């Protein structure tokens, strides 16, 4: 059945809303990044300052403000809570699927647009990130749109055989600049770095034949600079260059050093994409190799996507820090290439590759097994405690979390998805295979978000968050002790500090405090503090966390 453009868009919006909006507020925000960003947005509202970012009521120069502006709007609509913090990315999920459908439809046809949107929505991490409070979904979308409009500019200027490019080249260059400016406002100048590296590699591939006009390049840069000036320029004019200078220094440090626990191994991002972008990652493999093409633009767009993939993965392999979302920009080319493979197979324009089914079966079996093991292990977790050496992890595992067994339905559905999908591949029913693999995976993620993630969160941080929420409205200080966490700021609803000493941990432990102080620490670190600070009183301990209080000296507790 062939659906027209309007009907397809309506269905896509409805399906995307169903996939991404439910359960946004079901789970506490996770330390660090989710709570960090939500706290920045909360403090924007609290301080009524929307040009400078703060966390713990200190300047926070690691990120530009675009995503925080989105979160503040959501928080003013829905309140300061998990749903509001994640709502911008649910909207991004809806917009992204529409963008992929419309881009795929414009380049190829309606069928390809649906396949591309389906591949993105039905792959593990691409889907899951739309349920998060992270910056990357919007950042990646803006970079992709900038590159997409630049490709259209290139085609128009150089006479590619693509119908529908009715505007002048300048039009496409301007839109590329607008979206690049928005990307830089979202997460910084790494967006322009990725963009220019892709353009540079394409230039080398074309044997240094310049494919753009220098005047148009200047327009692109001026438009992008104009968009970014709305914050970079305003902040500098209003408060001087210090904040922007610190932001740029941080960006440089990010690329040249690694944070503790984030070094990883050289092939880290390739493994993350292989498993995290399943099943699209497996179906993308044939499209990396030579395939028959029907038009010049067909071959060219695929080339752009392959170059984008390699630029992103190699760039963030060079970068010292290894964090999952650093390579998330590669999800756009990976899902494109997966859709491209199915599209060519369906149209019998490329031979079916049996090895794809073999690899998909292997990775699918691993993913299914992991999902099933989560439930099996959780229902028998007390039997594993003696085999764990870390006392904090042991105590985490003793959390009182009820598992009914239905949580395993996500793993069972993953098994059925892989088995049925492989059967369709064997029959060369490629359309059915695509819907089975991607549609089934999307439902698996939906079930996991509803049934598994809330219970896993109770082990990792639930007890600490409960304690912090109980401190809301109490005139006190609340701090993490012996480890870093943004949770005390957001979940205790910290107010702007009146006493600058409150930033000094030693003062909170031993000084002449003017309010009660609550500390959250861990079982393997608590003795380092209690044996040297007799005024600390242990309130209780739960699931690996220990909760302490220091009363005002001379006052009854």
From TrEMBL:
GO molecular function: pentosyltransferase activity
Domain Glycosyltransferase RgtA/B/C/D-like: 63-225
Membrane topology: Multi-pass membrane protein
Highest taxon of source: Bacteria
Pfam families, per the entry: PMT_2 (PF13231)
Location in the cell: Cell membrane
Coiled-coil spans in chain: none
PANTHER family cross-referenced by the UniProt entry: MANNOSYLTRANSFERASE YKCB-RELATED, UNDECAPRENYL PHOSPHATE-ALPHA-4-AMINO-4-DEOXY-L-ARABINOSE ARABINOSYL TRANSFERASE
Protein name: 4-amino-4-deoxy-L-arabinose transferase-like glycosyltransferase
């Amino acid at each position: 059945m062939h659906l027209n453009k309007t009907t397809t868009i309506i269905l896509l919006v409805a399906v995307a809303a169903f996939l991404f909006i439910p359960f946004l507020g079901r789970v506490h925000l996770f330390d660090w990044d989710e709570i960090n960003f939500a706290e920045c947005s909360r403090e924007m509202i609290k301080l009524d300052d929307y040009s400078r970012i703060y966390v713990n009521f200190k300047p926070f120069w690691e990120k530009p403000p675009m995503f925080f502006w989105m979160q503040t709007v959501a928080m003013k609509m829905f309140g300061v809570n998990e749903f509001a913090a994640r709502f911008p990315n649910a909207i991004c999920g809806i917009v992204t699927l529409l963008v992929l459908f419309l881009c795929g439809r414009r380049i190829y046809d309606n069928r390809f647009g649906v396949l591309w949107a389906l591949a993105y929505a039905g792959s593990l991490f691409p889907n899951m990130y739309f349920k998060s409070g992270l910056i990357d979904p919007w950042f990646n979308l803006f970079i992709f749109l900038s590159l997409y409009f630049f490709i259209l500019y290139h085609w128009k200027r150089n006479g590619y055989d693509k119908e529908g490019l009715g505007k002048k080249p300048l039009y496409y260059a301007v839109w590329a600049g607008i979206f690049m400016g928005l990307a830089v406002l979202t997460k910084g100048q790494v967006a322009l770095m990725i963009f220019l590296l892709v353009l540079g590699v394409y230039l080398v591939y074309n044997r240094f034949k310049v494919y753009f006009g220098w005047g148009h390049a200047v327009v692109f840069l001026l438009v992008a600079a104009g968009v970014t000036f709305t914050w970079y320029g305003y902040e500098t004019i209003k408060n001087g260059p210090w904040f922007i200078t610190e932001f740029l220094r941080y960006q440089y440090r990010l690329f040249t050093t690694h944070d503790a626990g984030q070094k990883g191994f050289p092939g880290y991002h390739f493994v993350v994409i292989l498993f995290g972008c399943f099943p699209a990652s497996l179906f993308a493999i044939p499209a990396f190799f030579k395939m028959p093409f029907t038009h010049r633009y067909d071959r060219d767009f695929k080339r752009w996507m392959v170059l984008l993939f390699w630029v992103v993965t190699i760039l963030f392999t060079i970068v010292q820090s290894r964090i999952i979302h650093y390579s998330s920009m590669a999800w756009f080319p990976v899902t494109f290439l997966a859709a491209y493979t199915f599209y060519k197979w369906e149209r019998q324009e490329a031979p079916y590759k049996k090895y794809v089914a073999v690899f998909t079966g292997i990775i699918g079996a691993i993913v299914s097994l992991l999902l099933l093991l989560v439930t099996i292990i959780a229902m028998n977790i007390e039997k594993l405690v003696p085999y764990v050496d870390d006392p904090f992890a042991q105590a985490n595992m003793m959390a009182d979390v009820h598992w009914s067994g239905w949580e395993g339905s996500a793993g069972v559905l993953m098994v059925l998805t892989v088995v049925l999908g492989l059967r369709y591949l064997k029959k060369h029913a490629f359309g059915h295979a695509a819907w089975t693999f991607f549609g089934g995976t999307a439902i698996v993620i939906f079930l996991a978000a509803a049934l598994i993630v809330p219970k896993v969160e109770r082990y990792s941080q639930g007890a600490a968050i409960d304690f912090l929420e109980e401190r809301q409205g109490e005139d006190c200080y609340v701090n993490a002790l012996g480890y870093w966490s943004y949770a005390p700021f957001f979940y205790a609803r910290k107010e702007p500090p009146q006493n600058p000493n409150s930033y000094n941990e030693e003062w909170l432990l031993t000084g002449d405090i003017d309010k009660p102080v609550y500390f959250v620490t861990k079982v393997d670190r608590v003795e380092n503090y209690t044996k040297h600070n007799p005024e600390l009183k242990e309130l209780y301990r739960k699931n690996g966390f220990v909760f302490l209080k220091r009363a005002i000296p001379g006052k009854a507790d």
